[in-house]
Amino acid sequence: MKSLISSELSVINAGLERFAEPLAARRKPVARCRWQPPAAGDAALGWKLARLVGHPKIEAANKIAYERYLASTPLLAGVETAGAVIPAMQGRKLLLHSGPPISWAEMCGPQKGAVAGAAMLERWADSPEAAARMAENGEIELDACNHHNAVGPMAGVISPSMPLWVVRDAVNGARTFCNFNEGLGKVLRFGAGGPEVLERLRWMGEHLAPVLQKTLAATGPMELKPLMAQALHMGDEVHNRNAAATSLLFRKLAPAALAGNVADEKELAAAFGFIAGNDHFFLNISMAACKLMLNAAAGVPGSSMLTVMARNGVNFGIQLAAFPGRWFQARANYIEGLFFPGFSQADAARDLGDSAITETCGLGGFAMAAAPAIVQFVGGSTDDALRNTLAMKAITLGANSAFTLPMLNFGGAPAGIDARLVVDTGILPIINTGIAHKEAGVGQIGAGLTTAPLPCFTAAVEALYEEVGNAQ
Amino acid sequence: MKSLISSELSVINAGLERFAEPLAARRKPVARCRWQPPAAGDAALGWKLARLVGHPKIEAANKIAYERYLASTPLLAGVETAGAVIPAMQGRKLLLHSGPPISWAEMCGPQKGAVAGAAMLERWADSPEAAARMAENGEIELDACNHHNAVGPMAGVISPSMPLWVVRDAVNGARTFCNFNEGLGKVLRFGAGGPEVLERLRWMGEHLAPVLQKTLAATGPMELKPLMAQALHMGDEVHNRNAAATSLLFRKLAPAALAGNVADEKELAAAFGFIAGNDHFFLNISMAACKLMLNAAAGVPGSSMLTVMARNGVNFGIQLAAFPGRWFQARANYIEGLFFPGFSQADAARDLGDSAITETCGLGGFAMAAAPAIVQFVGGSTDDALRNTLAMKAITLGANSAFTLPMLNFGGAPAGIDARLVVDTGILPIINTGIAHKEAGVGQIGAGLTTAPLPCFTAAVEALYEEVGNAQ
Hints:
Chain A is α+β, with helices and mostly antiparallel strands. Chain A folds into 3 domains: 2-35, no CATH class; 45-69 and 298-469, CATH 3.90.1700.10; 74-288, CATH 3.90.1710.10.
């Protein structure tokens, strides 16, 4: 060994750390290069990937998709009832849920709980058991939010009577939707469906929604990217931390509601008291805005850019711009993080919800450097937050200059996940998220970080090879 | 030269950089130690300083003063008219101003303009010229805000009819005061006194103040340190950037005003529309809170800790905890920063206002690492913001764990400026501040950074030596 480690030796170590360690222990210069075999060591896939890397059709398609994503200009346009804006809901007992499509039988606990709660909210069933029977026998139909230009956090259940945020693209008029945030504690999105949950949802539909609808009519459509950008300068990553964005929205809406005389003081007090009491209120708007920006990129043949990442608590699904509507799925991961007192990993559901649309858009875990305060909630240090954002540069098409991050000296957030780069580097998209209890109705039990599972990306790369790689 | 720079040479360079440069240019290891002769090279002062460094009476006094500062618990307690809470104003034509005391004849342009405007607000004079004559002949009396437990930003003029924020110490019941923030553009604090300025001030007294007074009666006293701490996690340094603190305050006050039914919707719309439109609205509350925390430390014999830094646009004054009410003054500096289009350094007033009380309290320039977004406004980079905060560690007694900074991995803001350390190191307190036009009424023309001038600190150290050093 000694002869190898002369004072003249300079080493670059690629891959396994353990080859570098004895050198470092002897204070010999060793540059460490993080590397692992591409395609997780799968030689056949690696060969296909090699055909796709630098492929002119994919490069050109990604340029188009990424530019459409950058150009998209989401406006908070209004509030509408789900049944009115989602055509498929008309005349059917249809409930939407987060993640890729899944049957009632396979659903995780919190999502089943939310479906049952929504059926009772709609007065289709008068007990969770009755609702379960209807879902089982197909009387209640189920479909993914993402199939209807919608997104929902956690269980992500949207039912016909629920009010939705409507976000419209100033560029092309396209629209996306997300339900309202209920706050913390016992809430439908964590699978709770008791009387207090339904009562709150009914108040949101009957009282909160009209106030917000009239307020937005008074303000006119509100540009969302500048507001989100400002929140990124105020410690939010607009996924798990929305304290600034909620405050900025509140500061716009409350004076407009007062000046527009949209409701009496009692009604305004209830509506704005509810918003003021919920730091996460903006999350659902952020999600709809992200969905819109990514929808703009969907449908570019040959593009390896991700337009969807979504989880139903069982499976994790992604979509590529090349294949709108086509899911590439794998088992969803668990979340590493901090648990509320009395809970542990044994109580946790797998990764759940459509909120990873924010990461798909370059925010959330990708913009963690904007939100060092979040490490107090999800674990880790300020340096980890910066490191996570920097790591995402390796798997993204560019930096979104509309979303600048102070800790990067106002460089843009890494955005436009390229499925090829994920498979090539083995670096997986980082997601900041809440942890749901695995059983219905218990609620949030913690928060932390997880990643998208690699097999989604290998499957997507295989499909892209079938489409593009063979044709060359 | 060559013989000196052998490969075995390892150099520590203290002081002048130019001795290190030739070594560094030849890639020889040279550790650079920032050093300059203490007391700016004044040998007599250096000798006195040496007697004060580590002096047990001063160390013990500083411990008491610093702990009283840390323990102080400012509550936003209410809104009162200046004439009602500042006893000296009763039955006199007294106007308060920022900085150390100064005569009318010596005042800078913006402060003269603000005095004239306030005299017209009070209807003591019907023109700036008439007001000037009254100030000149002593009919209008002038005194420093700081002599009355008050602070005011920029010109800092407080007149008897103005509404003031009242901040109360939960520990000892002491109170401090600051006027309301008028927003940007033509405002009294920059020396403007035209009809629109007086009209806004009258509306603030007659309409805004009652709404806020009743709203605070509904909320009860509001703890300010947690709100300021939260704002530090949201990109504010609560001096030149108060976007988050204003938003958080707004989110607390607006729902309380609605729920408490404190005024009709039209009145609430005007009041909360005004607050929502002014990112700096919280500044004046921050200043009163800082003044309160530092007042708690004032009056500890022998303490070299600063309790006041204040500027009147001509002179910069500091006070030590050892000598409450005694000013140590020097000529105020100009500000280095960014100018609004059409303005330059030639148009600028010297450093002005009581707002450096925030830096005295460990915030503002001392907490710049919390507010990297501010570098876009005052010039520099995110790294500069961090470097400024770290530099202040060399002249402060500790880190305030109530005010943690994400970029320091949640370490506390450097706080408790020790006059001895400033003279010893030559490192001057950094102040983030606005730049006023040197003539009355033009307004703000930029923002940037400046420092407290060294002679204030050398004078304070001389006085401390007279008091303590001789007695040993």
